[in-house]
Amino acid sequence: MSSSLPDSLCFPGLLLCQMFAQSPSSVTVELGGSVTLSCSVPERYASNVLVWIKQPSGEPPKSIVSFKNNAASFLGGFDNKHCAIDRRSDCFNLKISNIEASDVARYYCGAIRDTTVRFGTGTSIRLKGKSSNSLLLELLFRRHHL
User: What is the reported pTM?
Assistant: First the structure.
């Protein structure tokens, strides 16, 4: 790991470095509501593949959207009925509609250049009126009974 990147994380084959400004750091929404996660893209990364990464608590991160050549590809169960991308010169925003319990997670925006992923500090989505323990129990119940 390079000493010039003290806050970076290493994963096999990828170097991850925080670069992108995201706001807010967390947001609380109601079930069925919607939220827009903002991401400011540095100009030098505007032409790279842009991604949104979802990381539920205690789980590994997974890509949910990739964006290249003005086209979004939705991954991991996300689709254009549940999510929308707002891509302008300096932003790469993710709007999630009809929020479900499974949307509770930390979301990171970023760009892929060669084998390096540069990403933001993340935005957490929380449900209004739900504690993390009751949410975890609800998610576990759904997984075992569906």
Answer: 0.76
